[in-house]
Amino acid sequence: MKKILLSSILFLTTFAIFAQKQPVEEGTTGNQQEEISEEQEEEENRKNRFGVKAGYSSVAVDLGVISLSVDGFYAGLIAEFSATDKILIQPEVLYSRAAEANIIHGAVLAKYYVVENLSILAGPQATYFIGEEDVEDNSFGVDVAVGVGFDITDDLFADLKYAYGLTERGDENDFIPYKVNTFQIGLGYKF
């Protein structure tokens, strides 16, 4: 768990350090440069942001033939970094609890705006089960996450995400190997 949290913090810090402002246009007067700088700063602040999100979570254990799911909640931190006008990179670290399972989700999603307030999300996600003795050897997994997002206002948003587990869990003592899939829907706020 420490490795995932440290990696997530390092990843978010790296993005924040390399986020660069656009240069001021040449041939403008002092007042024009101030106006352009203020506009660029406002635009940059809209595109490089941090926030929180929370909502409903369903964790499903896929046994191949059948799937068992438990409901719960999730909450966590997100960041958004502009890649282009329509594409953003959205790293997120979320805590999820469903029944007795405590899970940390760390994802790096590409966010593409199809239209002004509607986006699609896709990218890798890592999952880590916290404090589960029966999944200790298989506590870490890799998923592929896809979803949609809707910006209700400039700050408030809703999103829906499904993560398909790629990691086959279980060991030689388990009767059936399994995969863990998650479904999340919730609201968030960007600062």
Topology:
Layout: H1 2-18, H2 30-47, E1 49-62, E2 67-82, E3 87-98, E4 101-113, E5 118-129, E6 140-151, E7 156-165, E8 179-190
Protein model, in words:
It is a single chain. The chain contains two helices and eight strands. The protein is α+β, with helices and mostly antiparallel strands and about 190 residues long. It has a single domain, classed as Porin, CATH 2.40.160. It has an eight-stranded antiparallel β-barrel with strand order 1-2-3-4-5-6-7-8. InterPro entries: Beta-barrel_OMP (IPR027385), Enterovir_OMP (IPR000758), OMP/PagP_B-barrel (IPR011250). It comes from Salegentibacter mishustinae. Pfam families: OMP_b-brl. Keywords: Signal.
Salient structural properties:
eight-stranded antiparallel beta barrel; 8 strands; 191 residues; Porin
Overview in brief:
With 191 residues, the chain is α+β, with helices and mostly antiparallel strands.
CATH architecture verdict? Beta Barrel
Sheet with the most strands, sense and barrel status: 8 strands, antiparallel, barrel
Low-confidence stretches: 12-24
Secondary-structure element order, N to C: HHEEEEEEEE
